[in-house]
Amino acid sequence: MFLLMNIISLLNNYFDAAATFSQNFYSLFFLTARGKQELNLKSDTIILGSFFNKFSDLDQRAYANTIKKVDKLREQMDLFKNTNPTKYLETLNDNPAALPTIKAFDSLKARLNKLNAQANKIRDNQDLTPKQKKEFLDYIKKTQLIIKRQMTNAVTQGIPE
């Protein structure tokens, strides 16, 4: 049994290496060399790919906390609005900018959803080359980051800790 598992592991590593090599070879020599995509050091260099890393332009924890904060406040507001009007007014007094902040958040979220739909259409478009897709998707990603920062800033200013 132990020998069989070692053989399976060896075969798995062998086929994984072969697949990675062929993917890098295709990307570097057929796409990059023909100008269909730009050189990507992380995915196009066989040996050096593991040394390159891409850092996020936005602190994803801050954005995730923003979503949690808005969802929690929205849940409280909806619950108190229907069941306890006194507590609803107290919550509004504690957070006077809560309703406009939630409205602004929802508006920005709708814009973000439209950008996500556009990005999916670009990814699915077979008429575009990988280079064209990357250019379009880079623009959309930068716009998404701007909107996420706006959402984070709006919630931070409108809903204090």
SS class = mainly alpha
Uncertain segments are: none
* Cα gyration radius (Å): 24 Å
Helical content (DSSP H or I, runs of 4+): over 70%
Shape field? elongated
Task: Summarize the structure in words.
This protein is mainly alpha-helical. The chain has six helices and no strands. Helix 3 runs antiparallel to helix 4 (85-94), helix 3 (60-83) packs across helix 6 and helix 5 (98-124) packs antiparallel against helix 6 (130-158).
In short:
The chain is mostly helical and 161 residues long. The chain contains 6 helices and no strands.
Task: Furnish the topology, listing elements before pairings.
Layout: H1 2-32, H2 41-44, H3 60-83, H4 85-94, H5 98-124, H6 130-158
Helix pairs in contact: 3-4, 3-6, 5-6
Search tags:
single chain; 161 residues; mainly alpha; 78% helix; elongated
